[in-house]
Design brief:
mainly beta; eight-stranded antiparallel sheet; two-stranded antiparallel sheet; 16 strands; 9% helix
Length: 228
């Protein structure tokens, strides 16, 4: 075993940014068949909760810790949002351009990327692909103010809770993170074609692919190296 070395060239990593957000409203059966681009995405703050220990005592000693279930939550902030998100935010269209609030909120999925960098390649080192399932947005404030000599765009923010989805061989999960620097490039490209869709190769062709959010088991089958 060699001696440890800290901060070697090319190993000073960092993570930054958020881009390429995609919204996937949930359909019947728990699938996410139709994704739409989320323009104006400012930030996604992941906020896990739970996993708190409850100590038990016996024989005058600490006997063990019981851990509570862990939950995944997030805060989404954006300058705008897709029309399809209105139903996820408790709105319904009763006529073209006319929306009413206080309606049932639709469950949705979300994908976005964050940038991976290091001291050698900067922001071109790689990226992480984040996938969120079973998300439900809570009602949020929308603050409107007059235009003045220091104009600012309104920002929207939503607190999101999640319901995990099944994963064969593991506990259910509401989030998946994929590191582009550690996953086979061809398999990652195939996954992104599913997530972002594909245009027909020619105007006469009908082999385009609509963007959708695959469930964890499908991703595992696609990404996991073949046996042997």
């Amino acid at each position: 075993m060699s001696k440890l070395v800290w901060d070697k060239t090319g190993e000073r990593y960092y993570e930054t940014g958020v881009n390429q957000g995609v919204l996937y409203p949930q359909a019947e059966g728990g699938t996410y068949p139709k994704g739409v681009a989320w323009n104006g995405l400012i930030s996604v703050t992941e906020s896990p909760s739970g996993a708190e220990p409850t100590p038990l005592y016996a024989d005058n000693i600490k006997y063990l810790n019981l851990m509570s279930a862990e939950e995944f939550g997030a805060t989404i902030e954006a300058y705008t949002y897709p029309d399809e998100f209105a139903q996820c935010d408790g709105s319904a269209e009763i006529a073209p351009g006319v929306m009413i609030g206080q309606q049932n909120r639709k469950v949705f999925g979300l994908s976005y990327k964050t940038v991976l960098g290091n001291d050698a390649d900067g922001n071109d080192y790689g990226y992480k692909l984040h996938l969120i399932y079973g998300a439900l947005a809570a009602p949020s404030e929308k603050g409107y103010s007059t235009i003045n000599d220091s104009p600012e765009a309104i920002t929207f923010s939503w607190e999101v809770t999640t319901t995990p989805v099944p994963v064969t061989g593991f506990k259910p999960t509401a989030s998946i993170t994929i590191d582009s620097t550690k996953v086979d490039a061809a398999k990652l490209a195939a996954l992104e074609e599913i997530l972002y869709g594909k245009d027909p190769t020619t105007p006469e062709d009908d082999d385009g692919v609509d963007p959708r959010l695959p469930l964890p088991d499908e991703i595992i089958d696609l990404i996991t190296p073949a046996a042997g």
